[in-house]
């Protein structure tokens, strides 16, 4: 049997073989990044039923509509990508689909005429207005296992983590930050 460098390092001073040390393991079910990722995937999938089955939208398309829906003015695809933490190529494909379906439209950027911005069309706005109450209801169902106080605590704790990672936490903050 071949010996590894860790086997050799375990030898005792007398030259005999030491019993192997148990290897430390990362318990994924206690590892916060794993838990957050898993929760995000499950919640996203649960919410997607509202817009995927009924309207044929995938998650990236909904992210574009949701981002445009909460804004008062048009924004760039780059803003959507940064705001949602979704790869720009994924957002680009979603934008193309939504443009073709007449749910969003391009508008000229007044500040830079070489760039276009995106906004919801009337059809897109109507879809957003129909969907967001359903998604809020579904969010309430998902969070029903928490008391009102626990929901506030969860929100505050998530806010602390977002702040520590320098993530935008409000629409006003996102609008004011030039990076978005």
From TrEMBL:
It holds the Pfam family MarR_2. It comes from the Bacteria. Gene3D superfamilies: Winged helix-like DNA-binding domain superfamily/Winged helix DNA-binding domain. One of its GO terms (molecular function) is DNA binding. The keyword Transcription regulation applies. Keywords: DNA-binding, Transcription, Transcription regulation. The keyword Transport does not apply. Residues 33-163 form the HTH marR-type domain. Residues 1-21 are annotated as: Disordered. Coiled coil: none annotated. One of its GO terms (biological process) is response to stress. InterPro entries: HTH_MarR-typ (IPR000835), MarR/SlyA-like (IPR039422), Tscrpt_reg_MarR-type_CS (IPR023187), WH-like_DNA-bd_sf (IPR036388), WH_DNA-bd_sf (IPR036390). This is DNA-binding MarR family transcriptional regulator.
